[in-house]
Amino acid sequence: MFSTSGDILNLVIAVCVIALTIFLCLSLYYLISTVKKAHRVINSVEKGVNKIQELIDFLHGKIKNGGAYLMLAGELIKKGFDYFSKKEKKYDDEETPKRKRKSKK
């Protein structure tokens, strides 16, 4: 079957080439599988980030609109305090002369 050492060398080279081909095919298979899984993970993370961004935009809009209402309520409360403080001051001014009169007697 093998008449010379060159035939054995060719057989060994052929077996090595076949083994290398199988190794490269398996390596490519696992590399492609890993890249595919990484792509799935990246897509799911991207969807999650998009949902979080939508939530943040929604909350930002609500806070922005709520802030306008809060400022309006603050102004209303401020005007209410001003009104009642003026009333109280007016009431105190009216009461002060009566107290003075009573204390003079």
Largest sheet: none
- Arithmetic mean pLDDT: 84
Radius of gyration over C-alpha positions, nearest whole angstrom: 44 Å
N-to-C span = 145 Å
What is the helix tally? 1
Strand content: under 5%
- In sequence order, what are the helices and strands, one letter per element? H
Helix content: over 70%
Oligomer: single chain
> How many beta-strand segments?
0
Provide the low-confidence segments as ranges. Answer: none
Structural class by secondary-structure content: mainly alpha
Question: Which descriptor suits the 3D outline?
Answer: rod-shaped
SSE topology:
Elements: H1 5-104
Q: How would you describe what is shown here?
A:
This protein has 105 residues and is mainly α. It has one helix and no strands. It has one helix spanning 5-104. It starts with a helix and ends with a helix.
Task: Give a brief outline of the structure.
With about 100 residues, this protein is mainly α. About 95% of the residues lie in helices and about 0% in strands.
Task: Offer a few descriptive terms.
single chain, 105 residues, mainly alpha, 0% strand
